[in-house]
């Protein structure tokens, strides 16, 4: 497996678990490289279902089962969610996929992307399925930053790093990414307090990571808007606190002086998911971000 996807703590751990036939039912794969996490998930599906000639924990990459995984047509692996906010439809599809019993000797791999942005409602339903797994199922949850994952999820999965770099580099990247998100949250806080204009806010968000493209910055901006909305709800006691939010920002969020129409938050988060897709589809990032902030403003009335 490490030949196929590179050596890292997660690969070594999953390989050992497959060899000893002691796979846990759920893992949180943490790392910034989404492609590496997906490749590792595919390798687990191959190793768990290969019909070719190979040692334990390995796979041949040539048999029909391995080729189906590569072609995206295997019944033994399914990927749910994307980089955006989780849709209820996706949760329903996941639950029906994970509740079907596997053929004997098969390993069914359910992969969940964007676990960092799970809301409590979505997480509750996913967790229920993960905690009472039908045998032959393994759940791989993908995260960029484990500090952002709801504590209810973190406490129920085995957490593993997917990266070739050293631990120190990984920790530095985590810290830098958290600092960037905190800076984005500050910008949104100023916007919510009506201290800064819409166009100035869009400009700041798009310039946030100076070495990144406008598209990347717009994506990060939209993800932070989702985080911001969740944080405001948390700060107001509507949902339990999240470990990842920095202490410097959280009390501030509680004091944001606006009336929030909470009945519209779900729809707003759905729209954010669509807006993330628009950026992937090359819609002008400035326009997408402006529209998201306009919707945020419409949902909130200043007192
Ligand atoms: Zn094979």
Structure description:
- This protein has 2 domains: 2-164, 3-Layer(aba) Sandwich (Rossmann fold); 171-302, no CATH class.
- The protein starts with a helix and ends with a strand.
- The chain has 13 helices and 7 strands.
- The model is unreliable at 242-248 (pLDDT under 50).
- The relative contact order is 0.12.
- Helix 8 crosses helix 10, helix 9 (198-206) crosses helix 13 (285-299) and helix 12 (265-280) runs antiparallel to helix 13 (285-299).
- The protein has 303 residues and is α/β, with parallel strands linked by helices.
- The protein has a 5-stranded parallel beta sheet with strand order 2-3-4-1-5, with helices on both faces. It has a two-stranded antiparallel sheet with strand order 6-7.
- The structure holds zinc ion.
- Zinc ion binds at residues 50-52, 59-60, 62-63, 65-66.
- Residues 50-52, 59-60, 62-63, 65-66 line the site of zinc ion.
Largest sheet: 5 strands, parallel
Order of helices and strands: HHEHHEHEHEHEHHHHEHHE
Mean pLDDT: 81
Oligomer: single chain
The CATH homologous superfamily of the largest domain corresponds to: P-loop containing nucleotide triphosphate hydrolases
Break the fold down into its secondary structure elements and pairings:
Elements: H1 2-5, H2 9-19, E1 26-30, H3 34-49, H4 64-71, E2 77-80, H5 88-98, E3 108-112, H6 120-131, E4 137-143, H7 151-154, E5 158-161, H8 167-192, H9 198-206, H10 214-235, H11 250-254, E6 258-260, H12 265-280, H13 285-299, E7 300-302
Parallel strand pairs: 1-4, 1-5, 2-3, 3-4
Antiparallel strand pairs: 6-7
Helix pairs in contact: 2-3, 3-4, 5-6, 8-9, 8-10, 9-13, 10-12, 10-13, 12-13
This protein binds zinc ion.
Organism: Candidatus Cryosericum hinesii
Pfam family, one: DNA_pol3_delta2
Protein name: DNA polymerase III subunit delta
């Amino acid at each position: 497996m490490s030949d196929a996807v590179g050596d890292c703590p997660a690969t070594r751990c999953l390989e050992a678990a497959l060899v000893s036939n002691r796979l846990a039912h759920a893992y949180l794969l943490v790392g910034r490289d989404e492609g590496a996490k997906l490749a590792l998930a595919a390798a687990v599906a191959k190793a768990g279902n290969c019909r070719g000639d190979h040692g334990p924990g390995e796979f041949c990459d040539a048999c029909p089962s391995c080729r189906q995984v590569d072609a995206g047509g295997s019944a033994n692996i399914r990927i749910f969610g994307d980089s955006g906010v989780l849709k209820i439809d996706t949760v329903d599809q996941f639950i029906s996929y994970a509740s079907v019993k596997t053929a004997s000797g098969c390993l069914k791999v359910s992969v969940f992307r964007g676990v960092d942005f799970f809301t409590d409602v979505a997480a509750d339903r996913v967790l229920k399925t993960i905690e009472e797994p039908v045998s032959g199922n393994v759940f791989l949850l993908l995260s960029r930053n484990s500090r952002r994952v709801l504590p209810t999820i973190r406490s129920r999965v085995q957490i593993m790093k997917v990266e070739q770099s050293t631990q120190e580099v990984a920790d530095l990247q985590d810290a830098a990414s958290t600092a960037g998100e905190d800076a984005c949250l500050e910008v949104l806080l100023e916007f919510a307090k009506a201290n800064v204009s819409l166009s100035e806010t869009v400009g700041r968000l798009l310039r946030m990571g100076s070495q990144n493209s406008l598209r990347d910055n717009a994506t990060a901006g939209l993800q932070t808007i989702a985080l911001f909305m969740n944080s405001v709800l948390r700060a107001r006691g509507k949902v339990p606190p999240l470990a990842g939010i920095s202490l410097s920002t959280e009390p501030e969020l509680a004091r944001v002086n606006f009336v929030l129409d909470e009945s519209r938050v779900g729809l707003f988060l759905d729209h954010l998911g669509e807006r993330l897709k628009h950026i992937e589809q090359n819609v002008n990032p400035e326009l997408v971000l402006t529209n998201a902030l306009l919707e945020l403003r419409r949902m909130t009335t200043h007192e």
